[in-house]
Amino acid sequence: MEHSGTSEVTGADTAGPDPQLAVTMGFTGFGKKARTFDLEAMFEQTRRTAVERSRKTLEAREKEEEMNREKELRKQIEDIESAPSSSSAARERSQSSCRDTSSSDSESDDSSDSSDDELIGPPLPPKLVGEPVTTVDEGILGPLPPPLCEEGEDDDDELDDEGEEDNPVQRIPDSHEITLKHGTKTVSALGLDPSGARLVTGGYDYDVKFWDFAGMDASFKAFRSLQPCECHQIKSLQYSNTGDMILVVSGSSQAKVIDRDGFEVMECIKGDQYIVDMANTKGHTAMLHTGSWHPKIKGEFMTCSNDATVRLWEVENPKKQKSVFKPRTMQGKKVIPTTCTYSRDGNLVAAACQNGSIQIWDRNLTVHPKFHYKQAHDPGTDTSCVAFSYDGNVLASRGGDDTLKLWDVRQFNKPLFSASDLPTLFPMTDCCFSPDDKLIVTGTSVQRGCGSGKLVFFERRTFQRVYEIHITDASVVRCLWHPKLNQIMVGTGNGLAKVYYDPNKSQRGAKLCVVKTQRKAKQAETLTQDYIITPHALPMFREPRQRSTRKQLEKDRLDPLKSHKPEPPVAGPGRGGRVGTHGGTLSSYIVKNIALDKTDDSNPREAILRHAKAAEDNPYWVSPAYSKTQPKTMFAQVESDDEESKNEPEWKKRKI
Predict the structure, then answer these.
(1) H or E segment to which residue 164 belongs
(2) Contact by Cβ (8 Å): 91, 142
(3) Among 175, 288, 326, 650, which residue has the fewest nearby CB atoms (within 10 Å)?
(4) What is the pLDDT, as a whole number, of residue 163?
């Protein structure tokens, strides 16, 4: 319809302008004609061009493949020609005979008989003569090259690999195990450096122990033990991405960083606990829960605490944190984070809180979380672990409500899968992904004497429980699957750290120390005194017989010089430059001079009357004033108590 309309318009243009319109408007024509387009022709031309280009591309690709095949064929022929001289001679004879037979087929029977007479050397076997020889096989007579001979074996290996890929359980390295004795209390922290050379364990006994697989023998003893946080339980240990530092998180409010040998590198500062806004303090003010290194940036790590904050730190600046994340409920109230971690690329920070929520922030935006799911686990339970998969799209969370859940970060509105009946009794129970990202591993807890702790494996795609390993008669607290070693480290509740490996699937690690025999303890070489017994020697040359230690001590005790007996106190007056007992010490001096009883037993009346005669003979104070007016002293009359009571008024008298 559109095409017919266009043709009508162009037809009107060719008919010429309307005469009345031309007279009215004052011009004689409408200018150039409108250009017409044939859409069907354009589509056909485009289709032909595309087909031509596709054909050229296909021909170029076929030529390239043919050239590659020719190169491989030439290489195989060169390998055959480099064989021993005997085989090359036989090959030349066979090639010449093949050429003669091919030429004889093209000629008549008579000419073939004459050509057979000209052959030199023994005839070919009947099998080679009877088989047709193609042009491609003319240069490949003799034994096949090694790559072609091993095709069957390669196919078998590929089938085995495909079988392992289809069943990831076969890749679990659990055929062998070794046990490292950390102590008697729970192993609450595990750390393995990126190269897999050293393992570090921490526990409720405040100890941190270092294990070197290359330097350890079959005795499985740690080469170093220390207490970096004094009397605080170790909650988390993690090597940095370079392997030169270890982050130590304990029950205190200050995290520490130590080097590979256990020496302290830095200690985080403690914040002011009297400030309400935790963002204005320089550090944590309450007990820590866990910590994690940044996977990409060297020297940056993260900690979470009971002060309801998640803080980022730098090793170069221990006096103040780098940034602060403050988890909040949907109503805006504080909530305590129990665990935290970085994503694999380091751009996201994830934390699980006590109200059951999981909050994920952008590392550069600390105010509002990027993702927030408020009921990931039951409120009031401590989510013990959150872990990102190696591809960074999936998050696994181990809850205190005995569940393990799988989340898709790209669609963080509901869990992908959930598994229950996984009891946990510790606030640091781990979960992790396998190196191929196809399995998820976690541990289970048990009461003492009520069974054995297990390591449970779930398939990521279907979340089916595909495998279990019974560890020991205690809870499984920590688990770690190293991607380079392909070995599984487990920390238990009875103070053991177990390493599971497979000699065929694992690398280094526990395989290095198992093959070393235990060193025998060297007996100390003691030099004893040689005694020369000469009974007829003179007394001055006789050596005293060795006595028992007890008798020698008793004899030395009686000797005042050897026993350093103090001198007894001097009785009576002093002698020999020593002061006597009375007043010879500070206490006796104090008793003598200060602490005396100075009570006055004298009569004051008699003491005054002693001076009466002198006052009468030589008056000085009072008597001269009364010498003229009252020369004779008059004293008041002494009245009895009965008379005084009679003179008192009735209202003053005492009522009996």
Answers:
(1) helix 151-166
(2) yes
(3) 650
(4) 53
Residue among 421, 427, 203, 216 at smallest CA distance from 336? 427
Weakest mean pLDDT among 407-411, 431-435, 536-540: 536-540
Using CA atoms, how far apart are residues 54 and 127, in angstroms rounded to an integer? 47
Place of tokens 């990831």: 168
Largest pairwise CA distance in the chain:
201
Report pTM.
0.57
Cα separations (Å) of 210 from 177, 292, 379?
19, 19, 37
Q: Which residues pair with 404 in a beta bridge?
A: 398, 419
Where on the phi/psi map is residue 316: left (φ > 0), alpha (ψ -120 to 50), or beta? alpha
In three state form, how does the secondary structure of 276-290 look? CCHHHCCCECCCEEE
Cα torsion through 280, 286, 288, 293, rounded to 10: 10
The DSSP 8-state label assigned to residue 334 in this structure reads B
Query: Mind listing the pLDDT tens digit for each residue in 619-649?
Result: 887 778 887 888 787 777 766 666 666 777 7
- On whether the CB atoms of residues 262 and 202 are closer than 8 A, the answer is no
In one-letter notation, the amino acid at residue 39 is L
What are the CA-CA distances from residue 211 to residues 35, 183, 247, 510 (Å)?
86, 14, 16, 11
Rounded CA-CA distance 520/476 in Å is 33
Angle (CA) 258-262-265 rounded to 5° is 30
> Which of 192, 160, 188, 157 is closest to 483 using CA atoms?
192
CATH topology of domain 173-514: Methylamine Dehydrogenase; Chain H (2.130.10)
Contacting residues for 434 by C-beta, under 8 A, at least 6 apart: 168, 171, 172, 440, 441, 481
Q: From CA 172, how far away is CA 338, in angstroms rounded?
A: 30
Distance CA 501, CA 177 (A): 6
Q: How many CB atoms lie within 10 A of CB 241?
A: 18
CA distance 36 to 600: 146
Domain ranges of the chain: 43-147, 173-514
Element containing residue 271 per DSSP (H, E): none
Average pLDDT over residues 384-413: 92
> Helix 109-117 to helix 85-106 angle, to the nearest 10 degrees?
150
CA 285/CA 277 separation, integer angstroms: 11
CA–CA distance, 240 with 265 (Å, rounded to integer): 13
Structure tokens at 56: 């050229």
User: How many whole angstroms separate alpha carbon 292 and alpha carbon 342?
Assistant: 7
Cα 251-202-427 angle, rounded to 5 deg: 50
How far, in whole angstroms, is CA 624 from its chain's centroid?
107
Nearest CA to 334 out of 294, 293, 286 is that of 286
Q: Angle at Cα 225 formed by Cα 222 and Cα 231, nearest 5°?
A: 145
Contacts (Cβ under 8 Å, ≥6 apart) of 485 = 192, 196, 501, 506, 507, 508, 509
Task: Please state whether 502 falls in left (phi above 0), alpha (psi between -120 and 50) or beta.
Answer: beta
Q: How far is CA 76 from the centre of its chain?
A: 53
Mean local confidence (pLDDT), 358-375: 90
- Both tokens of 104, joined, read 């004889």
Residue 286 has pLDDT above 50, yes or no: yes
User: In which band, very low, low, confident or very high, does the pLDDT at 494 lie, cut at 50, 70 and 90?
Assistant: very high
